[in-house]
Write a structure and sequence with these properties.
The chain is an alpha/beta fold. It has a single domain, classed as Aldolase class I (TIM Barrel, Alpha-Beta Barrel). The protein contains 15 helices and 12 strands. The strands form 3 sheets. Strands 4-11-10-9-8-7-6-5 form an 8-stranded parallel β-sheet. Strands 1-12 form a two-stranded antiparallel ribbon. Strands 2-3 form a two-stranded antiparallel sheet. Helix 14 (about 340-350) packs across helix 15 (about 350-370). The two termini are about 30 Å apart. The protein binds flavin mononucleotide. Flavin mononucleotide binds near residues 62, 114, 289, 317 and 339. Flavin mononucleotide binds near residues 117, 146, 287, 319 and 338.
Amino acid sequence: MPHRRDFLKFLAASPLLTEFSAFAQEVEATIGERLTNPSEVINVFEMEAIAREKIPPAHFGYLATGVDGDITLRANRAGFTRFQIRPRRLVDVSQPDLSVNVLGAEARSPIFLCPVGSHGAFHPEAERGVARAAAAKGHHMILSTQSSTPIEAVVAARGAPIWFQLYPTDRWEYTVAMLQRAEAAGSTAVCLTIDLPAGRNTETSQVLTRQDTRTCSNCHTGQAKPIFEGLNMRGVGLNDPSLTWNVIARMKEVTDMKVLIKGIEVGADAALAVQNGADGIVVSNHGGRAIESDRGTIECLPEIANAVNGRIPIIIDGGFRRGSDVYKALAMGASAVGIGRPYIWGLGAFGQAGVERVLDLLNRELLITMQGSGTPTIDSIGPDYVLDAGYRVPRGRLGRELF
Ligand SMILES: Cc1cc2nc3c(=O)[nH]c(=O)nc-3n(C[C@H](O)[C@H](O)[C@H](O)COP(=O)(O)O)c2cc1C
């Protein structure tokens, strides 16, 4: 594949590599040529490197991108270095249990699969492969509005209820139609994403699209995503900039699904979500893909957990790449943690088997952290197990910051 090699050479010579490496661990760029079996992959950073070799450059750019200079994206990783674990000793951890139940969603792990649009851009198995992996490993899945696969097929592949992520359109009757279809398909909750009211500036995506020489119109046919079947999407926006907090009550009038608000970053908004009847919140900056120069989500969590005060479950996502990252969020008040890019790296690298490997790796790291810290169950991981050092610990070699 000569164009792939050229692309990797371009990356190696480019400041972009420094950008990627600034929030990942150092992995040799062509590792995928040697690691051909998912079981050989030892962490999610290696999976990213393999995915980068296999996914077309423009699609990898869509996956990797943050906004503007990718500062929020890197803040998500850097934030974890502020918090350190305080392990306790001589606790019986012989019967560890990672299972959770969040708003009725039972899972064998607190690591949830976040909504990510267009899985078909990363592997032909797409959302079906991801759902089968989630079923095999017992993980809860949230499906994007922008899914390449009809929701009914995803629920069938998962074999259990999923949650639906909603981008409200600017036509309320279309929003209602999507909600009703998702509910009929077997979704038990809806996550309303509220952090993109006015578009975004995804520069890294644009830079990598320039490197892609394929003819996009071969695949991008302009067809609407499956959830919009039967709706005329001409001129319909995928976001409604006029939304305010009463949207929760309006949604509850037309659906019995639980309503979660995705994209909360400050305590005052978390309190408003509770006041306005949300059943749960997702602390998220859209994986650094919405606003530039936000805090890392883990740094937002203390004020949000304080504002919520246990009244509704908190899910958090953004930059979770290690079991220890997950552990910290659980200790700081999250009921579950979402991952976005890591499972897509698995999908792009090896299809369903790659997603399963990513979940195995993260679960194993979390299990080791739990047992090593004297906390055999998710409920036993409390605030005493993490300390906010108040500063970020730089990590890396030769003066480069790596996380
Ligand atoms: C390629 C890509 C597509 C995404 N699509 C959606 C989406 O359709 N709806 C949504 O609410 N969030 C979407 N997100 C955000 C994720 O749900 C999640 O908040 C984020 O990826 C978590 O950060 P992480 O990728 O660092 O784990 C997307 C993220 C990525 C990387």
